[in-house]
Amino acid sequence: MEREAYQRQIAVLLILTFLLAVMWTACSSTVKERREEAAKTEWKGTGRYYHFDDVLVPGELKYQQKESFIYETPRFKTGVMVFSKWRVDVGSLVDFFTYHMEKDNWKMVNSYRGKESVLNFSKPDRTCTIKISERWYGTTEVEIRVGPLGEKKM
Question: Could you tell me the pTM of the whole model?
Fold first, then answer.
C-alpha cells in the first residue's frame, strides 16, 4: 500500500511539473505576442527610416528638424533626431521601439522607465539611445541618439 501511495505522489508531482512548464511557456509567449501586437496595432501608420536605415520611427511622430542634427564622415554617421506628438501612450511607444529595434538587429542593453523612459541598444559598432519624455503641456518628445562605439585599444 505504501508503495502505491508513493507512486501516486510521484505521478501527481510529475503531472504538476509538466503543467507548470506548459503554463510557463504559454505565459512567456503570450507576453511576447502582446508586445508584437501592440507594436503593430497601436501605431497604425507605417514607420519611417530617417537618417539611419536601421532605426524605424513611427510615422505619426513629427520630425523636429530644427532640434535635430546629423554628422557624417566616410567612416561613420552620428546624430540626434528629435520627434514629437500630442498625447501619446508612452508604453505603446516603448513597445514599438523595443520590437522594431530588435527586428533591425539591435540588442537591448538596458531600459529605464519613469517620468522619462530611456531605451539603450547596441550593435557591434554603434549604440542607440531613445529617450521618451512626456511634457507637462501634453506633448510627448522622442529623442534618438545614434553614435559609434569607441575604438578598442590593443
Answer: 0.71
Q: Are 118 and 131 in contact (CB under 8 A)?
A: yes
Using DSSP's 3-state secondary structure scheme, residue 29 falls into: helix
At residue 48, the 3 state secondary structure works out as strand
46 pLDDT band, cuts 50/70/90, is: confident
The structural domains of the chain, with segments of one domain joined by +, span 1-41, 44-148
What is the pairing mode between strands 126-134 and 77-86?
unpaired
pLDDT of amino acid 45: 59
In one letter, which amino acid is 39? Answer: A
Tell me the C-alpha distance between 56 and 47, whole Å: 6
Domain covering 44-148, topology: TATA-Binding Protein (3.30.310)
Q: How confident is the model at residue 40 (pLDDT cuts 50, 70, 90)?
A: low
**Cell numbers found for residue 90:** 508612452
